[in-house]
Each structure stands twice: as structure tokens, then as C-alpha cells.
Write a structure and sequence with these properties.
Elements: E1 4-5, H1 9-17, E2 32-33, H2 39-42, E3 50-54, H3 63-74, E4 79-85, H4 100-109, H5 116-125, H6 131-137, H7 149-158, H8 173-180, H9 183-186, E5 190-196, E6 204-211
Parallel strand pairs: 1-2, 3-4
Antiparallel strand pairs: 4-6, 5-6
Helix pairs in contact: 5-7
Length: 212
């Protein structure tokens, strides 16, 4: 088992010390630090056949390119699994869904981080709440948006020159399925092997993609 993160092991331990819910002594060593490199670029020749990530894929600016490169590296029979937040039950509830055109455009531009519009949408539409509130009260749960238009524009301008960590891929469980159905035409050698739809009171769906 190898571990990858955008932060070094020491940085992760420092972050965990600041949270009363986490223990710094339980942080595992990061084998791959993905600061200026993607996972597919980090693992050539490592014999990786299985990848798992929890609430990571939504942060990847060029998701089709990531899946394409990872499938090529892993080869037939490789598996990509994970937990992905369902936008209906997260602070993304008001955000427009990521379209296929946006996915294709991001891969064409080969972007390495969130573009300015994505960062704006994150902050402008951000509505903080717990998934249970939506399951109990529906989408009209009465929680106000957190950030002003001025703040969203400020972060948008910041994103033009610096990395701003936001959700790039806004999807429901069914929309993720629909995205995978386009993989053959996009030349991505992955097929949806297993899907566990979002269920009460959770805010995520689970999936397994197999390399074909």
C-alpha cells in the first residue's frame, strides 16, 4: 500500500494537530507528494493496480485527463474506486452542474488547477449545511449563502495567479454515471463496474471503475 497527498507528511501532521477530532500520530507517511505532479505522472513503473480516494476526485481540475492517464498507466484489469460527494447534499447544492462540455474543454486546455470561473462559482454559491438538513427538510433548508459577491470576485482574481482549492466537479450520482457512459467516445479505457448511489443520511456515492 502506498499513500499520496498534496501535502508532505509533516504538513499533514501539523494540520491534524490543529483539529481536536484528529490525531497527528496516526498520519501515515506520504509516498507521493502531488504538489507539482499528478498521480498518473508519479507512479509509472510502480505496478499500481488499484487506486482508492475519498472526496478527492471532485478537486481534480482535469478529471477526464486524470482518468485517461491513470487507466493507461494501470492497464487492463486495474481498478479506480472512491467516494464522491453528491452535490445535492453538500455546500455545492446551489452550484450549476459540471457539463460534459466543461470536462472536455478542461482536458483540451490541460489545466492543472481550478480556473477562475470555477473558483468564483464555488464561493458565490457556497451554502454551508449538513446533509441531514437536506434529507429532513429538502433543498429549501433556510441556510443562507456564506460569501458575498465581492468575496467571490476577490477569490476569482486570486485564482488567476495562485492555486485555490475548491470543488471542480459538481455532480450527482446519476450525473457521474452519465459521465462514465461517454468514456468510450472520449477514448477513456474505463467502464463503470459498480455504483452505490447516495443513500440517507449520507452525502456521497461510491463507485468502481475498471480498466478495459
Amino acid at each position: 500500500m502506498r499513500y499520496a497527498d498534496v501535502s508532505t507528511t509533516n504538513e499533514l501532521r501539523r494540520l491534524n494537530r490543529s483539529s481536536p477530532l484528529r490525531r497527528a500520530d496516526r498520519v501515515v507517511e506520504a509516498d507521493y507528494v502531488l504538489t507539482n505532479i499528478t498521480l498518473p505522472q508519479a507512479i509509472p513503473g510502480a505496478g499500481v493496480r488499484f487506486v482508492f480516494a475519498s472526496h478527492v476526485y471532485e478537486h481534480i481540475a482535469n478529471l477526464p485527463g486524470f482518468f485517461r492517464q491513470l487507466a493507461a498507466e494501470m492497464g487492463p484489469g486495474g481498478a479506480i474506486t472512491g467516494a464522491f460527494p453528491d452535490s445535492r447534499y453538500t455546500y455545492d447544492i446551489d452550484r450549476p452542474r459540471t457539463t460534459l462540455g466543461q470536462f472536455i474543454d478542461r482536458e483540451t486546455r490541460d489545466i492543472a488547477g481550478p480556473d477562475a470561473q470555477t473558483v468564483f462559482d464555488h464561493f458565490y454559491h457556497f451554502r454551508p449545511f449538513k446533509a441531514g438538513q437536506v434529507w429532513q427538510h429538502g433543498a429549501n433548508h433556510g441556510v443562507a449563502r456564506q460569501f458575498s459577491l465581492a468575496h467571490a470576485r476577490k477569490m476569482m482574481n486570486t485564482a488567476r495567479t495562485s492555486y485555490v482549492d475548491v470543488h471542480c466537479n459538481i455532480l450527482t450520482d446519476q450525473e457521474f454515471v452519465e459521465l462514465t457512459e461517454t468514456f468510450p467516445e472520449l477514448g477513456i479505457n474505463l467502464t463503470l463496474h459498480k455504483m452505490v448511489e447516495t443513500f440517507r443520511p449520507m452525502n456521497e456515492f461510491h463507485f468502481c471503475l475498471k480498466v478495459v
